[in-house]
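Hello,

Our lab assistant flagged a job as stuck in the queue for most of the afternoon. It eventually completed. Since we weren't sure the result was trustworthy after the delay, we are filing this so someone can double-check. Below is the sequence as submitted and the structure that was eventually returned. Let us know if re-running is recommended.
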Amino acid sequence: MIYLDNAATSLQKPPQVAQAVLRAMQTCANPGRGGHASAARAEETVYRTRSLAARYFGLEPEQVCFTANATEGLNIALRTLIQPGDRVVISGLEHNAVTRTLAALGAEIEAVKAPLFDQDAWLSGFAAALSPQTRAVVCLHVSNVFGAQLPVAELGALCDAQGVPFVVDASQSAGLLPVRPSDWNAAFTAMPGHKGLLGPQGTGLLLCRTQPAPIRYGGTGSRSRDQTMPEDLPDRLEAGTLNVPGIAGLGAGLAFLGAQDPAGLLGRERELLRYARAGLEQLGARVWSGPGQVGVLSFQLPGKDCEETAAAYADRGIALRAGLHCAPLAHQTAGTLTEGTVRLSLSVFSQQSDITAFLNATKRILPLA
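-- returned structure --
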């Protein structure tokens, strides 16, 4: 199978990720819950991954909290900051992890709209939308549908100047672009472990520069007499037994990425995107692309339903994703809410030969349109 659905989950991992998961399952017990060797080994494993993440994202280890995925991290961030009736400004590209959570919280949502790849227009739109009543700004770094990159550093500076908390969804950028919450003045930055960070499913990180409110309560292995959650991070957010095998695998993914040349990885992915875009356009496909695009390319084939298109690729051994990609707001912004798009998404393991095979399959599918 040629796997081009990495915006959902990176299927191809460095071999050391699976090795780390298996080793943790065989040797690690429960961190912070015993003085024996297997508990100590678990604690060392968790702290090693926490420290790797802290160095990778320019923070202190205690600011790195483990979650099950980016959605859990965003829930924590938004439930910390938002009360019913609060006004929240978001981009018109946000995932349901943001919009459904804000709707459940009873927030008043204002979605900024701008051309997909015009960062100046996005910045101007946010500047116009901010007001003294704005309780928070929430913005993804890279669109999971279109690969459009938003100017998070400039947005963070704008929020900081007006005293508005800033939340960043780095689900599609972590592991590919520099993610620096301190440089962005971000109160919270959420990301999954299973996409660009090359870890297992069931892992994620919430990078905290503001004290969070926990959404789970229970044992932490610390301050057990108290019937309130500890104030100190990361214990405040990590009630219950941690996913130690998953965290071990995430640490292996982070170590792998830390040994790579980030600029080289990014340049290579962008070159593959350009190759795919040019080939699709030559074949008459409608393609969404523009400056700053990373990781993701959405398209439609003429005369063919997107779900049927993705199924035709799957029949030929090529994994893509079609539909609304859990981001109807992004499709509304792009004008594709009715029909959706087919999405191709890359990883550090994608090859030019994968794109060539994809384009050859496109040629065979087009006559069926």
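-- support follow-up --
The delay was a queue issue, not a problem with the job. The result is valid. The first strand starts at residue 2 and ends at 3. The chain has a mean pLDDT of 96.
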